[in-house]
Amino acid sequence: MVFDVELAAERLPPEWAEGPLPALRADAPGADRERRLTYFEPRVGESLFGTPARPSRWHLHNPAEADEPAVKAMELLRVPAAAGLGRRTAGLCVLHVRLGDDPRTELTALAALPTDHARLARLLPSGVRVADGASRAWTLTHMTFDQGPPPAVMPAPYASWETHDQWLWLLASRTPLERFAPDPEDTALFAGRVRFSADWQALVLRDGTAFVGLSADPGGDQTFHATAAHHVHTIYLDVFLLGRLQHLGANSLANTVSALTAREADVHRLLRLEGRLIELRRALWSSHITTRGKADELLERFQEQHRLDRLLTHTGTTLAETARYVEAARSRRASVALGLLSAVGLPFGVAYAAGALWGTPGPWTLLVATVVALLLTVAAFVSLPPLRGLVSDTAWDRAED
User: Fold this and answer.
1) What DSSP line would sit under 290-321, residue for residue?
2) Which class for 329: exposed (0-12), middle (13-18), buried (19 or more C-beta within 10 A)?
C-alpha cells in the first residue's frame, strides 16, 4: 500500500538502509538498486532510486512496531523536484503487508490506514508523518490459491464472470459489494486488464491494482508464483511508484496553470511553468520505461485510469494558448505605443521645426510652437478615427491590467 507522507527528517534512523527494498526477506536474493537500473531505462532511474550521492529511497525489514495484519517491510521515497510540488519534504511511504484469512475485508481497512494516525505514528520513523489531506491509500495486491483456479466469491448476478475476474475486481477496487455493486454487463470494468501468461493476470484500476494467480501455487520459494510475488514487490511496484509520481506532478502543474488568470499571465510566469512542464517530461513522463516484460503495459493502464496523458496534453495546450495571448497582448501594446508616439511626435516636430525656421529664438517662440503643436495634436485626434482608436486601446489595456 502506498500513501503520501512528509519527509521532514534530514536523516533517517540507522536501521533504515539506503535503496529500494531488495526482497521481502533480508536473506533472499533480490533486485537492489544496481540490478533494477538494468531493467529500467536510465531516464527514470534517478526519480525512482536517487543516486549514490543524493539518495532518495530507503527501506526497512520487519519494523519493530508492526502489528496485524503483519507489516513485513517499509519503504520511503522522496518525491523528486521534477514533480514540481514546490516543497522538498514530499514523499511516498510503501507498506509491504501480508494479509490474513479475510483479505477482502482487511484490504478495505488498509485502504483507510492513512487516517489512523496513532497506528502510523508507531510505524513511521521520527520526522516522517502522513501528508495533510491523505485519506486513502493506493494498494497493490498479489493473491494465489493452492488448489488451482480461484474459487467463486461473488453472488449469482456475477456468475457470468470468470472466477479470477471476480477476485481481480474485488481486490483492485478494494470496495465491498454492499458499498458498490458493479454492473455485471459492463465490459469496460476490465479495460485495465494485463495478461501475463496462463498462470496469472492483473487488473489496474484507479485506486488499486490486483495480481491473481490462475494456476495452483504449491508454496515454497522456488516456484513460479514465488518469483511472481518477488516481481510484484520490486520491479512492478516501481512501475506504479513512477505512475504515482507522474500523477502528483501532472496534477500539481495542471492546478497551477488553471489558477493562472489572463490578467496574471506574463512572460516570466509562463517561462517558469513551461520549464516545469519540460522538467516533468524529462525526468518522469514516459510510457516506455523498459524493453522487457509487461512493465510498460502496466504503466499505460495506470495512466489511462487517471487520464494522465489527456491531463498533460490539456495542460500543455493551455500553456501554449496563454503564451499566444500574452505575446499578442505585448505586440498590441507595442503597436499602440508606437502609434501614439508617432501621432504626438509629428505635430510637435513640425511646430518646433517651423518655429526654429521662421521665428526668433526665445521663450515666446517656444510657447507659441508648443501651443500650435497641442492644437494640431488635438485636431488630429478629433478628426481622425484611427487615432481615437489608439486612445481607446490604451484605456482598454489599463482596465485589463
Assistant:
1) -SSTTHHHHHHHHHHHHTHHHHHHHHHHHHHH
2) middle
Report which of 56, 38, 60, 58 is spatially closest to residue 47, judged by C-alpha positions. 56
At 288-303, the pLDDT tens digits run 888 777 899 999 999 9
Cβ–Cβ under 8 Å, residues 164 and 148? no
Q: Got the DSSP string for 340-395?
A: HHHHHHHHHHHHHHHHHHHSPSSHHHHHHHHHHHHHHHHHHHHH-HHHHHHHHHHH
Say which amino acid occupies 67: D
Query: Vertex 247, ends 259 and 177: CA angle to 5°?
Result: 110
User: Which pLDDT tens digit goes with each residue over 366-381?
Assistant: 776 677 767 767 776 6
Instruction: Find out whether 128 and 91 touch, Cβ atoms under 8 Å.
Output: yes
Given a contact cutoff of 8 angstroms between Cβ atoms, the answer to whether 73 and 21 are in contact is yes
What lies within 8 Å, CB to CB, of 146 at 6+ separation is: 216, 217, 218, 219
| Total-model pTM | 0.82
DSSP state of 25: S
Average pLDDT value over all residues in the chain: 83
